[in-house]
DNA sequence: AAAATAAGAAACGCATCGTTTCTTAACGGT
DNA sequence: ACCGTTAAGAAACGATGCGTTTCTTATTTT
């Protein structure tokens, strides 16, 4: 009886079968670890099964194939839209900070899996994987609204295209070079392109 | 004896073994066709051998693995820097035309293979595959120089970052959506971003 | 004409996919 | 507390494709 209670609490001591959410969470974690350590092409279902202490049959009962399980694991970690967008008191620092946060988020897991996913799924695009519910992000409009309120910018309506310039250029850099942008690159995007564009008369 | 004759005849009425450059060109062409028709994940060495009428052994004598043969075939078709950059008599049309030519070049073969290659090679980046000898393209500086000579632009020195804005944004679109840019998108990049940026006072 | 070279056919071992079968642990209703 | 149901986990399967090897023979070179 005590033994049975123990079993339910800890899976390690003796064999205990995890189920449902607990099991699934362990699998998703194993998928991410395998992706990070081995990359998309070394990634195998056997590896995931072994790492998560289960079997392939369990995986294939939940996801139809390799791409689906990777997609599920990656989607769980797609950066959420921030509730709090740091306010540095000036437009330049706010935008630089937004790009730095792209550095932190993007270079982690996504880049390891993104291209492989798009290839293997065949029909999908990067945009669909990265922005399952639409591309426009709230952060730039918040940052720009603040700048207008501060009087840094004229109260002009920017187009989606304009306001996304720094984020698009940053994403472009990240995809091309597959590493975090340097501070110099961030400064170029903001100082040579974005600020001149939005503060022009 | 008849059986032997038959075997030899079955393959080809005239049995001729291609060699060297001729054979290699046929293989490279087969690689590109397989890539285009089947995509990177359906692409197989068997398929290439069959399509080019040779055998896997021949392929592996020349290229060490799947990624290498794809890379070789893709590199042959990486768009050459244009000798003649069309002159439309005004900056806007010149830039739009440059973006349209990216549409034509990029959406063909590269997008089918690029991501797969980067994944499989593991160590490589998109930039390395696309720009084996450096990123800066001559076309934008030619276009801008003409605009200056026409008096459309002040004779100001643009940074690399500035002058690459339309090309970078276009490449970003192509990678994200994996299809040619619409005329609307091209117009947005040029009219809402690039022209305001370079013609500002 | 003989020797050297390289094309092409065929089979191999291996890894991995996705599937299936079977046993049994854990759960849930009574 | 029991018992029937559900789902986990183990193990093997066939199929596919990689990269390799062996062998025959067409073509080139000497």
TrEMBL record, chains A, B:
<dbReference type="InterPro" id="IPR001647">
    <property type="entry name" value="HTH_TetR"/>
</dbReference>
<dbReference type="Pfam" id="PF00440">
    <property type="entry name" value="TetR_N"/>
</dbReference>
<dbReference type="Pfam" id="PF16859">
    <property type="entry name" value="TetR_C_11"/>
</dbReference>
<feature type="compositionally biased region" description="Basic and acidic residues">
    <location>
        <begin position="1"/>
        <end position="15"/>
    </location>
</feature>
<dbReference type="InterPro" id="IPR050109">
    <property type="entry name" value="HTH-type_TetR-like_transc_reg"/>
</dbReference>
<keyword id="KW-0805">Transcription regulation</keyword>
<dbReference type="InterPro" id="IPR011075">
    <property type="entry name" value="TetR_C"/>
</dbReference>
<keyword id="KW-0804">Transcription</keyword>
<keyword id="KW-0238">DNA-binding</keyword>
<dbReference type="InterPro" id="IPR009057">
    <property type="entry name" value="Homeodomain-like_sf"/>
</dbReference>
<feature type="DNA-binding region" description="H-T-H motif">
    <location>
        <begin position="44"/>
        <end position="63"/>
    </location>
</feature>
<feature type="region of interest" description="Disordered">
    <location>
        <begin position="1"/>
        <end position="20"/>
    </location>
</feature>
<feature type="domain" description="HTH tetR-type">
    <location>
        <begin position="21"/>
        <end position="81"/>
    </location>
</feature>
<protein>
    <submittedName>
        <fullName>AcrR family transcriptional regulator</fullName>
    </submittedName>
</protein>
<dbReference type="InterPro" id="IPR036271">
    <property type="entry name" value="Tet_transcr_reg_TetR-rel_C_sf"/>
</dbReference>
């Amino acid at each position: 009886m005590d033994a049975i209670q123990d079993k339910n609490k800890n899976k390690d001591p003796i064999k205990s079968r995890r189920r449902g959410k607990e099991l699934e969470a362990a699998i998703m974690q194993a998928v991410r670890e395998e992706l990070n350590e081995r990359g998309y092409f070394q990634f195998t279902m056997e590896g995931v099964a072994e790492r998560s202490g289960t079997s392939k049959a369990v995986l294939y009962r939940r996801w139809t194939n390799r791409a689906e399980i990777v997609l599920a694991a990656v989607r769980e970690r797609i950066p959420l839209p921030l509730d709090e967008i740091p306010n540095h008191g000036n437009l330049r620092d706010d935008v630089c900070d937004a790009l730095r946060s792209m550095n932190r988020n993007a270079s982690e897991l996504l880049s390891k899996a993104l291209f492989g996913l798009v290839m293997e799924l065949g029909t999908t695009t990067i945009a669909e994987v990265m922005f399952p519910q639409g591309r426009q992000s709230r952060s730039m409009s918040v940052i720009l609204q603040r700048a207008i309120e501060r009087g840094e910018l004229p109260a002009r309506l920017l187009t989606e295209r304009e306001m996304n310039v720094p984020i698009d250029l940053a994403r472009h850099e990240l995809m091309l070079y597959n590493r975090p942008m340097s501070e110099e690159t961030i400064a170029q995007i903001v100082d040579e392109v974005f600020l001149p564009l939005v503060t022009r008369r």
